[in-house]
Write a structure and sequence with these properties.
201 residues, globular, 26% strand, alpha/beta, seven-stranded mixed sheet
C-alpha cells in the first residue's frame, strides 16, 4: 500500500466543509466524490458520516493509491475502491448509477472552463431524486467584493495556465441551469471560499 499524500489545504478545510455537509445532508445516502485528490476529504467525511457510502474518483490514476491509503489508515468500511473518472468523458462510471450527493471541491478553478458544464451535466445524470451537488472553492461574485487574496490567487492561476482561473458564481449558475440544476443554498466559508449546494428545482 503506498503512503497517503498530504494536502495542507484539505487538512485545514475538511472540518468546516464537514460541518456544513452534516447540516444539509440527510442521515444516510450514497455519495460520489469528483476529483478526490489525496483522499483526505473522503476519509474524513466517511468517518464522520458512517451511514453514508462513498465512491471516490479522480481523473488522475496516480491519485488512487493515496485515496486507498487514507481509507485503509482510517479502517473505513463505507468507502468503495477509488475509480478513475474524467468529468469530460461522455459517460461516468456505469452510466446508470445514482447518488444522493455529488461532491466536488477545488476543481473548477484548476481545470478548463468546459469542465464546469461537464460537471453539471454529469451530476444531473447521476443524482437520485432529491439529490444534491455540492461544490466548494473560491468564486468571484457580481455583488460581493473580491478579497485581495483571491485576486492574487486568480492571477497566479492564469499565469500557470490561461485556461485556469477562479470562476464567476453567476456563470456557474448559468451552466447549472442548462443541466436543469439551480443554486439552492450558498455558504460562506473560511479563507474566502464558498460551499454551494445545487439541486433540481
Amino acid at each position: 500500500m503506498p503512503s497517503p499524500n498530504f494536502s495542507p489545504a484539505a487538512d485545514r478545510n475538511k472540518q468546516a466543509i464537514f460541518d456544513v455537509l452534516r447540516k444539509v445532508l440527510p442521515g444516510q445516502g450514497s455519495a460520489l466524490e469528483i476529483a478526490s485528490g489525496t483522499g483526505q476529504h473522503v476519509a474524513w467525511f466517511a468517518a464522520g458520516l458512517p451511514q453514508w457510502s462513498w465512491q471516490p474518483t479522480d481523473a488522475m490514476p496516480d491519485a488512487l493509491g493515496s485515496i486507498s491509503a487514507w481509507v485503509a489508515e482510517q479502517g473505513l468500511a463505507n468507502v468503495r475502491p477509488p475509480r478513475v473518472l474524467d468529468v469530460m468523458a461522455p459517460e461516468w462510471l456505469s452510466g446508470t448509477e445514482k447518488f444522493d450527493l455529488v461532491y466536488c471541491a477545488n476543481m473548477l478553478h484548476i481545470s478548463p472552463w468546459a469542465t464546469c458544464a461537464a460537471l453539471m451535466q454529469g451530476s444531473a445524470r447521476h443524482l437520485a431524486a432529491g439529490g444534491v451537488l455540492v461544490t466548494y472553492g473560491p468564486y468571484l461574485e457580481d455583488d460581493v467584493p473580491t478579497s485581495e487574496g483571491n485576486l492574487s490567487f486568480d492571477q497566479s492561476l492564469r499565469a500557470q495556465d490561461p485556461a485556469w482561473g477562479i470562476r464567476r458564481r453567476e456563470e456557474v449558475e448559468q451552466e447549472a441551469a442548462q443541466a436543469g440544476l439551480r443554486l439552492k443554498t450558498r455558504h460562506a466559508m473560511p479563507a474566502n471560499n464558498l460551499l454551494l449546494v445545487w439541486g433540481r428545482p
